[in-house]
Design goal:
By secondary structure, the chain is an alpha/beta fold. The protein has helices at about 10-20, 50-55, 105-120, 145-155, 190-195, 215-225, 255-260, 270-275, 275-290, 315-330, and strands spanning about 1-5, 25-30, 35-40, 60-65, 85, 90, 95-100, 125, 160-165, 180, 205, 230-235, 265, 295. It folds into 2 domains: about 1-65, Alpha-Beta Plaits, CATH 3.30.70.1140; about 85-330, Aldolase class I (TIM Barrel), CATH 3.20.20.70. The strands form 3 sheets. Strands 7-8-9-10-11-12-13-14 form an 8-stranded parallel β-barrel, surrounded by 5 helices. A 4-stranded antiparallel sheet has the order 2-3-1-4. α5 (about 190-195) crosses α6 (about 215-225). The longest helix is centred in the last third of the chain and has 17 residues, at about 315-330. About 45% of the residues are buried. It binds phosphoenolpyruvate (PEP) and manganese (II) ion (MN). Phosphoenolpyruvate binds near residues 184, 185, 206, 236 and 268.
């Protein structure tokens, strides 16, 4: 971190700042120039509040030279992290497709879809039991019952299950879930992230609707700081001024996240586009851009789905998408 101190800084205030900085366990190197005094902070500055320093009267400018995230940073962990979910690896060249309905609706629905997506190339099953809905009057998910049905589908197909946690108080209910999803709306639920940091389970961390990539990485840092290194990042589209799609898929998130972090990055083309016919092109673009996997919504009867029918693929459409994704993977 580099601090530029104003030319006319009061020496007592400058001494006070120096003492405070040294108490933060960083080395301070001073360079006196004709017009300014520059302080170079060396050491772990991740805990130093930049805004607090820049608010001081004697400080002209503060800049970070290293990112505030450490454990998820590729600089300190150059090799790709590979996450093993019941033998299915994600990251480091291992690509996985997670598929299933937006929400679990019945035993027949989840088991039928699970068998269909497995047959067509998905190794992991998704399905929401606790659903974050904009309207309190919309279907809220089958909750505990939904989790039981997912476990039933896992028993029938052998597919590991991925499902979203919405509240800290539900954590015990997720004991048999293979990947716990933190949805876009909870990306900055820091108490939840801290608790998941104490778990050993893989966490699928989705990017918030209006969050920067640095904020996503800082949320991952919360989980890893607690001791859980099993994190999969997910780009799922962000809110922009564009209204033709539900969200705007940020393709650049894939190379940027992979450059900055060693964690695997997957893409959700379903929530990005919000329209079934857009899933294929977005999935292909994500694959070509280097994603480590995809999470795709599939429903056996999209027209009657209780949640996100318009963006859900039929099993046949899903099979076509998988074929094209595999063709892109061969090329790249
Ligand atoms: C979901 O995966 O069903 C979901 C609600 O996703 P997101 O949090 O990305 O909106
Ligand atoms: Mn959905």
């Amino acid at each position: 971190m580099i601090l530029t101190v104003k030319k006319d800084a009061n020496p007592t205030q400058l001494d006070g700042l120096m003492e405070w900085l040294k108490a933060q366990n960083v080395e301070v190197h001073i360079s006196e120039g004709t017009y300014n005094c520059v302080l170079g902070l060396v050491g772990d500055t991740s805990h130093i509040d930049m805004d607090l320093i820049s608010g001081l009267n004697i400080v002209e400018n503060v800049q970070r030279v290293s990112e505030p995230f450490k454990n998820v940073n590729r600089k300190f962990h150059p090799a790709d992290t590979i996450i093993d979910v019941c033998g299915h690896k994600i990251g480091g060249g291992n690509f996985q497709i997670i598929a299933g309905p937006c929400s679990v609706e019945s035993e027949e629905q989840i088991c039928t879809i699970a068998k269909d997506v497995k047959k067509n190339g998905a190794n992991l099953l998704r399905g929401g039991a606790f659903k974050p809905r904009t309207s309190p009057y919309a279907f809220q998910g089958m909750r505990n019952e939904g989790l039981k049905l997912l476990l039933e589908a896992k028993k029938e197909t052998g597919m590991p299950i991925v499902t979203e946690i919405m509240d800290l108080s539900h954590i015990d209910l997720f004991a048999d879930v293979d990947i716990i999803q933190v949805g876009a709306r909870n990306m900055q639920n820091f108490e939840l992230l801290k608790e998941l940091g104490h778990s050993k389970k893989p966490i699928l961390l989705k990017r918030g609707l209006a969050n920067t990539l640095q904020e996503l990485l800082m949320s991952a840092e919360y989980i890893i700081a607690g001791g859980n290194e099993n994190i999969i990042l997910c780009e799922r589209g962000i809110r922009t001024f564009e209204t033709a799609t539900r969200n705007t898929l940020d393709i650049s998130a894939i190379p940027v996240l992979k450059e900055k972090s060693h964690l695997p990055v997957i893409v959700d083309p379903s929530h990005s586009g919000g329209i079934a016919r857009l899933v294929r092109p977005l999935a292909l673009a994500a694959t070509a851009a280097g994603a480590d996997g995809l999470i795709i919504e599939v429903h056996n009867d999209p027209a009657h789905a209780l949640c996100d029918g318009p963006q859900s693929l039929t099993p046949d459409e899903f099979a076509e998408v998988v074929k094209s994704v595999n063709a892109v993977r061969e090329v790249i």
